[in-house]
Amino acid sequence: MNIFKNKTLVIILAVLIVLGSWFGIGVMKTTKAANKVKAVYVIGEDNDNISISNDLAVRESCAQNLATLGAKYLSSSETGSISSINQIITEMKNETDLTELSKLNDQLTEEVGILTDKLGEKELSSENKESLDEQLSIFTNKGNTILYDNYNVYVQSYKKKASDPVFGFFTNFAPKVEYFRS
Length: 182
What we know:
elongated; mainly alpha; single chain; about 0% strand
């Protein structure tokens, strides 16, 4: 049987090819847009590694350094914040959901504040006091950098495009793009 003799079958095949192509191109373009936003989170808007992801890694490192310092000066009854910091850092390293990661970042900020308040009541050596101040300064600065990072502007732009019915339809098949709120 020659399929070209059956006009209905030819029309159906043509429509399926057009729709399949349209769908494939739509998913590809939407995925590319989503991946561009995700790249800003990981490597920064100018591919310069000035990003929320890197800032979080620095904050985790500073918090770990502060916890190590705290272990030198706090009694076993005062180390709750150290345990909390270590637990939060572990959870942050394993978390992929940005909403949850943002909450963990807020919890880390709170626990570091508790720890540094306790350390402020102790007689630290001048070297350890300097280390405390330096690590806390870096930790705080990276937190401020996260607050003003342009990643959420990219997310907002993506979500605005997603309000278009066609683009919005294809976002169902693209990687999830979410805000980082902290």
